[in-house]
Amino acid sequence: MNLPGQNKRVLSGMRPTGRLHLGHYHGVLKNWVKLQQEYESFFFVADWHALTTHYEEPTIIEENVWDMVVDWLAAGIDPGRATLFIQSRVVEHAELALLLSMITPLGWLERVPSFKDQQEKLKERELATHGFLGYPLLQGADILIYRASFVPVGEDQVPHVELTREIARRFNYIYGREPDFEARAEAAIKKMGKKAAKLYRTLRKGWTEQGDEEALARAKMLLEGQQNITLGDRERLFGFLEGGGRIILPEPEALLTEAAKMPGLDGQKMSKSYGNTIAMRDDPARVEKVVKGMPTDPARVRRTDPGDPAKCPVWELHLVYATEQTREWVVEGCQSAGIGCLDCKGPLIDELQKEQQELHDRAQPYLEDPTLVRNIIADGCERAGEAAEETMEEVRRAVGTDYY
Ligand code: TRP
Ligand code: SF4
User: Fold this and answer.
1) Cα separations in angstroms, 10 against 36, 144, 153, 396
2) According to the model, what pLDDT value does residue 60 have?
3) Tens-digit pLDDT profile for residues 150-185
4) Which of the residues 164, 177, 180, 328 could staple to 245 if both were Cys, CB 3.0 to 4.6 A apart?
């Protein structure tokens, strides 16, 4: 059968931050499960990335890694389809990151929004480090080493994928050209006349060195308006502009996870930092307890006071879990005070526990026999290592470190 995405690769990673919650499940993992059916998929534990911020806590990594992989498997990630691995076991990621660091201007990294944001947010940590500045560069290596077409990520990660594209472009530009390409391009520039040539050079520099998109657009316009150069030279100059030549590292595309934000127990987005989470594999008794403790529409002081679901965090969760029929029952019962809030929470607790039961069931064999998980990861690391090595052979040839 010819699937549309047959030869496209998907790659994504997660830092090992501990047990995953329902926000991860609904917002990220269900999407991975879908993608693994359509594409060759690589999913990995970004343990080195965890060290960029938590370098003083080496012991938390190991435990979090295995818990997280079990959560992935519980979510339905299928090791028969997707390749699951650990970043630090494919050391080629570090080699590529190092080589890319040679050509990555410091300014590109300093300008990534998460750099300053996170430094602000994690003030108690000392993050004026090379490793932390290089976080998105390492991420770029993670992606480019598999020549991934698609990178499913949340909104906050999109700038990292953008940076990855720029680094790929610059790498291809520097190492992917034919031997006489540059000389031919230089000759073509001169044919445009002094003034246009100078402007072209400035704009090209703005684009290739600073990633200035406006400069790129202006340079293209400049070329389009040139009367006195041949079509061949024009194409050459377009290629010269964008790093035409051989593509060693293809540019990836971010796949923005479109899933609505999963609401937490307090109506805010579910997040560990808000303390409003339900774990993917929580204890059923705890699920019942925390849902029963959820705040509701403050207008419902007494059982007989009518309420408005729009003002209630419980309703937000009903929107994720309830059937149409249950929703109607909630709206009617809430507005008419026909049901109490505990009644209203009943079907939600049932649905949550039902969903969790499936996750518990899928996790069970792995909890009983942890070597199953180790083997899945060992296999995945081997497969990932082979794919990474293929790219690295070309990369080493390109940068001239393939001599022996
Ligand atoms: N930075 C990502 C996050 O915090 C994790 C990550 C590391 C990643 N390398 C990646 C995601 C490569 C996608 C692709 O979520
Ligand atoms: Fe919220 Fe339901 Fe209570 Fe209405 S009845 S306030 S929707 S918990």
Assistant:
1) 8, 11, 11, 24
2) 87
3) 999 988 899 999 999 999 999 988 988 767 788 888
4) 177
Contacts of 321 by beta carbon, 8 Å cutoff, 6+ apart:
348, 351, 352, 355
Looking at the CA of residue 14, tell me the nearest atom of ligand 1.
5
Q: Is residue 271 part of a domain?
A: no
Residues 138 and 235 in one domain: no
Residue 208: its pLDDT value, please? 87
Atom 14 of ligand 1: nearest residue by CA position: 12
260 alpha carbon – ligand 2 mean position (Å):
21
Tokens 């019962």 belong to residue? 333
Residue 161 CA to ligand 1 centre (angstroms): 9
Domain range for 152: 9-176+250-260+370-399
Atom in ligand 2 nearest the alpha carbon of residue 331: 7
Residue 1: what pLDDT?
A: 37
The residue whose CA is least distant from atom 6 of ligand 1 is 13
**Residues of the chain whose pLDDT is less than 50?**
1-5
- Identify the bridge partners of residue 14 per DSSP, sorted by sequence position: 45
Atom of ligand 1 nearest to the CA of 142: 12
Total-model pTM: 0.84
CB burial of 250-264 (b: ≥16 within 10 Å; e: otherwise) equals ebbebbebeeeebbb
Distance 182 CA to ligand 1 centre (A): 36
Same domain, 108 and 125: yes
Q: Residue 386 is encoded by which pair of tokens?
A: 């082979």
Ligand 2 atom 8 nearest Cα:
341
